[in-house]
Design goal:
The protein has 258 residues and is mostly helical. It is 62% helix and 0% strand.
Length: 258
Amino acid sequence: YHKYTESINEPKKRWLYLITTIIMIAFQYISHPQSPFFSLGFIFVYNIVLTIAKRKFPFRIRDMLLLGFGVILISAAIAPYQVSYFIDHAGIKDEGAGGKLGFYPEHFGRLFSWFKVDPKFFEGIPADYFYYSRMYGGYWTLPLLFIGLLCILIRRKKEDIVLISWLLTLYIFLHQEIFGGNRNLRFLQLEAQIFYSLIAIGLINIPSLIRLPAQYRAYAKYLLAAVFLIIFMTINYQPLHKQLSGAYSGIDRINAEE
């Protein structure tokens, strides 16, 4: 979609990227019905951020209408019996869950935390899933994440705006209780994609922060990347091996019906 916004004044390219965006979002429905809602949410947030950054609309209104209708029509062709339910529930509310979609100010306090862990989550998900140190190799990666975040906020290049919009979209979906949603846990799995991207950006920008001579910066980036991989694998190898070695017990795990 970001290529569409860059080609807004080139009709042929604009239509190509718009149609490609519609098809890609619609077919996300195959992997999970909630995926298109996150992508559409990202486009909404990205349009706002890009409008603020460029001080002009990066889209055509009729194109956005076409995008919405196109995604719905193709998704309906793929899974006609599910589309109406997900439209009614905006992809963020389970069927049969109490309450309605709306605005719930009593959950406003959750905005001051990245993700509010509910004890019921532990019933089907390991506790490690909710600890930064256990999911990202320890707290030593946290400074790199903040450096990466600071870099994209300062530079604000077109690729940085994509990441900023992606992070804001995820934040909104993780706090959907304010709108009556109850499926924020399902969107937490998207966290690693953006966090590891920010960690990588922070890592390769360290040479620029310490003002190394230009001829040494490239070598420093490769060296830092190699050191990072060695440390990361050293710290995570044992717990990963222990967990994955017992994940699949072989053919004997298949029951008679299977």
